[in-house]
Amino acid sequence: MTRRGYLPILLVLAVLALLPFAVTSNVVLNFVVFVLIITLAAQGWNLLGGVGGQSSFGHAAFFGTGAYVSAILQVRFGINAWVATAVAVAAGAAVGWIIGFLSFRAGLRGSYFALVTLAFAEVLRILANAAGFTGGAAGLLMKLDVGFWNMQFTSRAAFLWLALGFVAVGLIVSQMIANSRFGAQLVAVRENEEAARALGVDVLSVKLKAITVSAALTAVAGCLYLQYFLYIDANIAYGLWISVEALLAPMVGGRGLVLGPIIGAFTLHGLGEASKLLAGRVPGIDLAAYGAVLILVVAFAPGGVLGLLRKLRFRSQPVAKTAEETA
Amino acid sequence: MLEVKDITMRFGGLTAVGGASLKVDKGRIVGLIGPNGAGKTTLFAIIAGFLDPTAGRVIFEGSDITPLPAHERAKLGIARTFQIVQPFAGLDVRENIAVGAYLRHARAAEAHAKAEAVARRVGLGGDLDKQASSLTVAGRKRLELARALATEPKLLLLDEVLAGLNPSEIRDIVPVIRAIRDEGVTILMIEHVMQAVMNLCDEVYVLAQGKMIAQGTPREVCVDPHVVEAYLGKGAADRLRAEEASHA
Lengths: 327, 248
Ligand SMILES: Nc1ncnc2c1ncn2[C@@H]1O[C@H](COP(=O)(O)OP(=O)(O)OP(=O)(O)O)[C@@H](O)[C@H]1O
Ligand SMILES: [Mg+2]
Prior knowledge:
The complex is a heterodimer.
Chain A: H1 6-22, H2 26-51, H3 60-77, H4 81-105, H5 110-130, E1 140-141, H6 156-178, H7 181-191, H8 193-198, H9 203-229, E2 231-232, H10 234-237, H11 240-253, H12 260-279, H13 285-300, H14 304-313
Helix pairs in contact in A: 1-6, 2-6, 2-9, 2-11, 2-12, 3-4, 3-5, 3-9, 4-9, 6-9, 7-9, 11-12, 11-14, 12-13
Chain B: E1 2-11, E2 14-24, E3 29-33, H1 40-48, E4 55-60, E5 63-64, H2 70-76, E6 78-80, H3 93-101, H4 108-121, H5 137-150, E7 155-159, H6 167-182, E8 186-190, H7 194-200, E9 203-208, E10 211-216, H8 218-223, H9 225-232, H10 236-247
Parallel strand pairs in B: 3-8, 3-9, 6-7, 7-8
Antiparallel strand pairs in B: 1-2, 1-4, 4-5, 9-10
């Protein structure tokens, strides 16, 4: 019973882990690392928005908090990268809990919740852009100091494995939740809050737990981004772009499904890169491709890529409906 | 087991329930009947913790539970069904019932085993893998019952679980309800199907326009002139009596 769902996860992880042995092109490895970072952010979003039906439009708040807290600890206080990352993830989780407490206790749902999360992320972006200790508009540049203890690697493959390790944790956590009481209650809250309450589900506490874990996962993505690019500013860390990435990948891959974020992130960015190759250097062509994919998904495959695959496999059975009405 | 004391519920200017009281003893099936809009569902929502009453108290097993939220009351052993069924539409029958079972079973394997046992008991054993949204009306009513039952309640509040069912479906479900009581679950049920009320209930309360107008055995209540008037309009009881007299 507890093994349920782990086989496909192992398969996906194995393929990605072996990739550096087959491909040595830095372009490809860079691409995979970047997509894995997006995947982590999206896994966070998927837990709250996909499984729990509370669509956030401001996961940048958690990504950015992870990145900034880690950067400040390392740059300003000389704290070890691993320790800084751990503290930053905890800080991201705390921000998640606070935003959740303020908005869920006020009973915000659907687009109201989405707008409030967006507002929080924007406030944080503006603050980070203005404050001194965040480096203001100039951002924060990390010292290049390669080594395992500093979580910096010259080898792309090493960083790929590091990111994949975190993605693996995200996948396992997601699968464990899917098989657990908490997961069942979270889905129940998504499907029908009233009915969930009648069955003894403490809706507020379930939502708070979800947003806290969700924020922690997305904060990990922020920390990895920092370790990889060694530079952040407010528009990167708290920018709208990451809120959109975090939400788009699960929608495209399969909302609420454990493998949805990773499948979605690779599909989206794969298509984005392909369209750049095909159309040449038309600026923004990859963004146009995103838009097109999103429209296609919403119109023809509300279950995302995985939903589509499942539909093809069991053509007679309808695909599980997720809470796409809150989208 | 349950005592509802002088409950009043006002929605703005409308008084849906005005000072209603009732008592349910352990091990009984008590009916709550009354015309449409009488305030029955509102009273249920107050008992289950979904609405805060304007005034009055709800006592469960000797303690005042009026300030407790719905999920706490479920933990204490109060389960309700919804008149307008509220399935988790995207989940299958097993998963729907398991949400209820998780209240007392933390582990997935146990919750699923419990869900399957409950499903078989209410006649959903063959539908475990079906999507809740694909069930018939009768199936959805059974699912409401199953989910509530899976929380292992002491007191079960059934809001018109027979409404919308055909006579043969009603015949199937009535013994299930009786069996639930026989296993020690106290039941308070709102019902319009009088045949079932007569059949099942040890005691009946009648609510009309937010007020409790009668109480007694099903037989007593049916001939109570106040009840006849509440259903058929003012003076109806007298007219009926006069008609009977003229026939005699
Ligand atoms: N949330 C609410 N806000 C305003 N008015 C309400 C609300 N809920 C119920 N009412 C009103 O309160 C009255 C009682 O409604 P209730 O649903 O309790 O009746 P009922 O006895 O269950 O009727 P039925 O037999 O039709 O189910 C009705 O007039 C209804 O319109
Ligand atoms: Mg009603």
